[in-house]
Amino acid sequence: MSSFLHQRPIQNPFSNDYPISSRSSSTSQRPISILSPAGLIILLSVMVILGVFIPRSGMPQSMFSNSNKASSISKWRDYSLAEASSFVSESGTVIVSAVSQPYLPFLNNWLISTTRQKHQEKVLVIAEDYATLYKVNEKWPGHAVLVLPAPDSQTAHKFGFQGFFNFISRRPRHLLQILELGYNVMYNDVDMVWLGDPFHYLEGNHDVYFTDDMAAVKPPNHSHDLPPPGKKDRAYIFSCMIFLRPTDGAKLVMKKWIEELQAQPWSKAKKANDQPAFNWALNKTAGLVCGSLPASSDSITGGLYFKNQTWVQQTKGMQVIIHNNYIIGFEKKIKCFRGYGLWSVDDHALESPLGRLKKLEFGRPLVAFCRTNYNLNDL
Fold first, then answer.
1. What one-character DSSP code corresponds to residue 22?
2. In DSSP terms, which residues pair with 99 in a beta bridge?
3. Is the Cβ–Cβ distance between 298 and 321 less than 8 Å?
4. Backbone CA torsion sign across 204, 206, 211, 212
């Protein structure tokens, strides 16, 4: 697998030599020998034409696409999380996002921003369907992996359904697996945009770094500890932006998160999601784990950035990550990003490792990514 990743085989669609047909015997001219000067000139001319025009037309890909695609699919189906993490990691760190096919445009937008901060090569896309697995690895070999079992693609993003809960509850398992492999791991939702390098703000040597979902502005000298429990006897911390070191403390939080999800299963009466369980896990491990809450301007909730323009202007140039989590609906999120100059896909798609994606490559949008209280009428 590693040799496949690091060096793509050079395909030669013309490796099988076909004899050049001689002219019909019905003509009065003698056949031209391929070894004669005239034959060599004709052969050279044909080779030049093929070399110049056929690559531009995409003919080789269409001629051999079936066999190549079948071989690629087989390899990526067997691609493991351990192989993928080893391939993308830099300085022992992996950046992870879980993505399904409808969110490829958001993935592309997020990748443009990580590329501008020169961190794109350590990105690993955990594909939540086979279409995403194959598309990302076709465009960017080695940077997507699917962890079995794959969620039901028909219900995985319909908020309020069990399929959605099954999808988001996979997150701590993915992160724990990467920690067990010995890597630092940063998790991001793809409805985020990096305006700066977040790694510059991970001060100290904590087990877990997290951000809160509060729209209130924190003072510059605020505590970086886990906030005290709120109305529901737990903090209000995001499960959408996390950095973990491969320590016993970080692994404990992930294991506790998994336990809390199992203790609060989805039901029609209580349509759970993963964020409350993450907060319970943080609260219950607070005395055993060293955590850190960055400043307001480091990772910014949409409830603050999109609703408090006075603060935005006061902290201009200081913001690091913007999260578009307070906007509901696929098209509304894109419109919001465009309005604030944060949607780069339209004019800068080629800055992404995936390049420009056609609409048919990402399908019909379903529902926004990491947020409670969705309105299914927005779909």
1. P
2. 127
3. yes
4. negative
Query: How many other C-beta atoms are found inside a 10 Å radius of the C-beta of residue 179?
Result: 22
Rounded Cα gap, residues 101 and 107, in angstroms: 10
Q: Is the Cβ–Cβ distance between 211 and 294 less than 8 Å?
A: yes
pLDDT tens digit sequence for 120-173:
999 999 998 999 999 999 999 999 999 988 776 555 455 556 556 666 788 999
Peptide bond into 276 cis (omega under 30): no
Distance of CA 312 to the CA centre of its chain: 27
∠ CA 192-198-203 to the nearest 5 degrees? Answer: 140
3-state helix/strand/coil string of 23-70: CCCCCCCCCCCCCCHHHHHHHHHHHHHHHHHHHHHCHHHHHHHHHHHH
In order of 71, 95, 300, the CA distances from 76 in angstroms are 9, 19, 35
Both tokens of 226, joined, read 């886990």
Q: How is residue 134 written in tokens? A: 């194959």
The predicted-structure confidence for 191-235, as pLDDT tens digits, reads as follows: 999 999 999 988 889 999 988 766 666 666 666 777 777 776 667
Residue partners of 356: CB distance under 8 A and separation at least 6: 349, 350
pTM of the model: 0.74
How many other C-beta atoms are found inside a 10 Å radius of the C-beta of residue 342?
Answer: 17
Handedness of CA 102, 106, 109, 110 (dihedral sign): negative
346 φ, ψ to 5°? -60, -45
CB 156 within 8 A of CB 164: yes
Cα 267 from Cα 234, distance rounded (Å): 21
Helix or strand holding residue 124 (H, E): strand 123-127
Do the Cβ atoms of 107 and 125 come closer than 8 Å? Answer: yes
Tokens 């995985």, residue?
156
Distance separating alpha carbons of residues 307 and 309, to the nearest angstrom: 6
Looking at residue 210, its amino acid is F
Sheet of 192-194, strands arranged across: 192-194, 321-323, 299-300
What is the distance between the alpha carbons of residues 357 and 346, in angstroms, rounded to a whole number?
10
